[in-house]
Design brief:
This protein folds into 2 domains: about 160 residues, Rossmann fold, CATH 3.40.50.1100; about 220 residues, Rossmann fold, CATH 3.40.50. About 45% of the residues lie in helices and about 20% in strands. Strand 9, helix 11 and strand 10 form a beta-alpha-beta unit. The longest helix is centred in the N-terminal third of the chain and has 18 residues. The protein is globular, with a radius of gyration of 19 Å. The strands form 4 sheets. It has a 6-stranded mixed beta sheet with strand order 3-4-14-9-10-13, with helices on both faces. It is of the alpha/beta class.
Length: about 400
């Protein structure tokens, strides 16, 4: 098996194999390279490391615990199901891990405003909180459909002091929010900082976001051995852009016996246009300044995509995930809207945990897999976020 070393991926040009890089105008290359150099400088300083470590511990509440879901395990009658409880982080998801790092970097670079996109709103809330903490202006772009669907998170962003910009173009969802945020960046790229919300975009963002998120897997590796005496047999996480998944997977990539599975949204079915299963149905292309698998038409334009989970409806995916797919180190599969909704309710009523709709995709697939495996097998799922933001939407949809 190929050896995976975090410090050698990506290469000096920002490529993970053939994916990644900087497919952007020349003047933006300098802006991105300035961010890269600033990141390389700041991440090695004792002051930055200590400040981030203190914030993770005293602000976010890390380490997030690992929880054995015994009633869910019993319901499926097979492998043992465990959760890495990123839903317990301050602001409700894994997103705070990289938002703190990005906000500190923006402050270090003397940027005047931090701009971002958000789908489910978790990145937006986390970044609004991080910007309030460091004292920098924050502007969040969000598709109009998601503004309505994820209203609780919109309110939180505004309370935290962020400006929320509804995006009415195109599908009015995550891809269009990214386009809008990039346009705002171009108005003043010297003074504005675009805090990308996943392991996507031009180099160095896939690397930086991965590095900040890798604390999830580093903690989990130590915790799981402490809890069970061995490493998990399976790691499972939902994949849209892929930040929570790469955060969990990174620490285990060289453990040949640990199987890894990323779960994408099958939406209303892979035989319909209403899905966002980039790995299952996409082809190599370009989107938002980098190369990756893309759901695209014959002209190379991104297709409209759909998921019940606003944080997963993106037509691209992180370049490192693309490399891991090609190397067959990680398996990528799907879960449908129905499977997601069923698990949202089931997990809530069996374990008293209301999961984010994004995370429910991973749990739905993992539970079905668990039923086919013996009881001495362990599955660790990254429960990437909590479902407070989705509760009203699900209640309306199910008539609760």
């Amino acid at each position: 098996m190929q050896e995976f070393r975090q410090e050698t991926l990506p290469d000096e040009n920002g490529f993970f194999g053939e994916y990644g890089g900087q497919v952007i105008p020349e003047f933006l290359v300098k802006i991105m390279n300035d961010i890269y150099q600033a990141y390389l400088q700041i991440r090695e300083t004792a002051e930055f490391k200590q400040e981030l470590a203190d914030l993770y511990k005293y602000y976010v509440g890390r380490p997030s615990p690992i929880y054995h879901a015994k009633r869910l395990t019993a319901a499926y009658g097979g492998a043992q199901i465990y959760f890495k409880r990123e839903d317990l982080n301050h602001t409700g998801a894994h997103k705070i891990n990289h938002c703190l790092g990005e906000a500190l970097l923006a402050k270090y670079m003397n940027k005047k405003k931090v701009i971002a996109e958000t789908g489910a709103g978790q990145h937006g809330v986390a970044l609004a909180a991080a910007c309030a903490l460091v004292g920098i202006e924050c502007e969040i772009h969000m598709g109009e459909i998601d503004v309505v669907k994820e209203h609780p998170n919109v309110v939180k962003m505004k309370i935290l002091g962020a400006k929320v910009v509804p995006v009415s173009r195109g599908t009015k969802t995550l891809k269009d929010a990214v386009d809008s945020a990039f346009e705002e960046l171009l108005k003043n790229p010297e003074e504005f900082f675009y805090a990308i919300g996943s392991v996507v975009g031009p180099h160095p963002f896939p690397m930086m976001v991965r590095d900040f998120q890798s604390i999830v897997g580093s903690e989990a590796r130590e915790q799981f051995q402490e809890l069970t005496g061995k490493l998990p047999d399976y790691l499972i996480a939902c994949v849209g852009g892929g930040s929570n998944a790469i955060g969990l997977f990174t620490a285990f990539l060289n453990d040949e016996n640990v199987k890894m599975i990323g779960v994408e949204p099958a939406g209303k079915g892979l035989d319909t246009p209403d899905h966002a299963a980039t790995m299952a149905k996409g082809t190599s292309g370009q989107i938002h300044g980098f190369k990756c698998y893309v759901l695209q038409d014959s002209a190379g334009e991104p297709l409209p995509v759909y998921s019940i989970a606003s944080g997963l409806d993106y037509p691209g995916v992180g370049p490192q995930h693309c490399m891991l797919k090609d190397l067959q180190r990680v398996e990528y599969t799907t879960a449908s809207d129905k499977e997601c909704l069923d698990m949202f309710i089931q997990l809530s009523r069996l374990e008293g945990i209301i999961p984010a709709l994004e995370s429910a995709h991973a749990v739905a697939y993992a539970a079905e897999l668990a039923a086919t495996l013996p009881s001495d097998v362990n599955i660790l799922i990254n429960l990437s976020g909590r479902g407070d933001k989705d509760a009203d939407f699900v209640a309306d949809k199910l008539g609760l």
